């Protein structure tokens, strides 16, 4: 039998799979990410480290391109690198900064190499990724350290000088620049004492000598030096003894503290302004806090005085007139304090500032007197400011009267307007364009000390009895409540200019007419009024005043009592006249409950509280009928009449 030939062993499919599994185990044991792709750039395998690098499973990677699993910017980098390697097969290395799956960016080096397939053609590429973040960081630290060491002297913002026997042996660029020289070479060999002001020279020489002898000396101190051009600067110097070329020398590190000294002076000034502002704010809080009780008392005093006027004898009537005048002055003082504290209720709308000024001129001419010329310089364009016209009129009045008092020997007062000017010295840069009201005079002017206290309440330079010091404080409060700014320029003997900056309205064509109240007779009333006031004296005054006008008044001391009266009353209640802030319920809450059953009932609020307190209790500044305390019986009756004459709101209409 012929001997059979030797057969070549055939690998089984299972054997190949076992080898592949073994190879995969080896790859997974390698900590560096490894991957391989076919000639089309499609991933065909990877190890566990590569899965962690991408944050994807092997099943999510194999069969995908770089554009399927990587951000677009990195995919572009990988694609171009792969294409360059396939175009020129071999080995490729490049660095990149990439984000791992954990979100941390790392510096890495990619190592790639092509391989051939069984048919000898290009089969694909295999690559690995080496994390070089720490190496890069170490290299960066080393470079930074070298640069710091190299730039420690020349790059220092501190001046450095080494001197022996006061001769400059070494200086850096910062020291040369500090003294106004182009380069350190210009200073070598100079006697550094020439740059120290004479008054400070003994101090510096004494400290240097003590330090060389090893005696105690201040570790740092400040002196004045002189630049090349003769200008002075403040320097903080930190001296120490060093060995320079084998012999002791003084090393001085110098810092220019000129700006710091200026800043400290500015801070001291600002601290004083802050203390002054805090005093002003404290007075403002006090004014707002006492307003309610004080206004209740004034309501009773002024109201009762008015009711008694004409009833008593002429002698008594004269006394009542004096009481009424004192009450009005007290009420005016309260309003001024509230204006200063920015707690008034404003009725703001867009009006032309020119119209307000024009309407005030004829009123102001008699007040400024014949020795003063009052002129206007109005912007030819409308100046549409968002304002409460009566309050702006108060600002104009106070500024003009103050200018009058500052110009006792005759001169000129000018009222000017401008449209679209940025905020002035007291306004922050970059503010929106604003409308400007300017009042300037040719009077005596003010010193800086007077200007520093100008807007403080009760501060005045006038003689006793010539003013209460609230005029400009009131102006300040009104302007700030309008979200405006105010700037004052004054020179003793040359007059004063006050510029007020107010927010502009959205469009000059949306200007509203300035409504001025016209006197009209007070009609006799016949309506039913539910009066709710927790202050007995005010309640009795209001009840009596309204009853005299013919109104039928139901008076209640509390919201609960008011609700009971409303339920018991058989007829219709035409008006609810209620205080805003009371125990149990606020005025708006009570009105909401009562108007559910009395749908045609109108509501008039009365309060001595301030704007911010009323807003917190649901009374809007422009949407509610509000009678501010203190009020007179006549003012109360007119407010009631005006409210009753208004058309019911749409939701109140019904059968």
Structural features, described:
With 655 residues, the protein is of the alpha+beta class. The protein has four domains: 18-136, PAS domain (Beta-Lactamase), CATH 3.30.450.20; 155-256, Beta-Lactamase (2-Layer Sandwich), CATH 3.30.450.20; 349-510, 2-Layer Sandwich (Heat Shock Protein 90), CATH 3.30.565.10; 528-652, Response regulator (Rossmann fold). It has a five-stranded antiparallel beta sheet, sandwiched between helices. It has a five-stranded antiparallel beta sheet with strand order 7-6-10-9-8. Helix 9 crosses helix 15 and helix 11 runs parallel beside helix 12. Mean pLDDT is 80; it is low at 1-8, 423-430, 463-469 and 651-655.
Annotation, overall tally of beta strands: 22
Please tell me what the overall shape is: flat
Amount of helix: 40-55%
Quickly give the structural class: alpha+beta
Distance separating the two termini: 129 Å
Give the second-level CATH assignment, the architecture of the largest domain: 2-Layer Sandwich
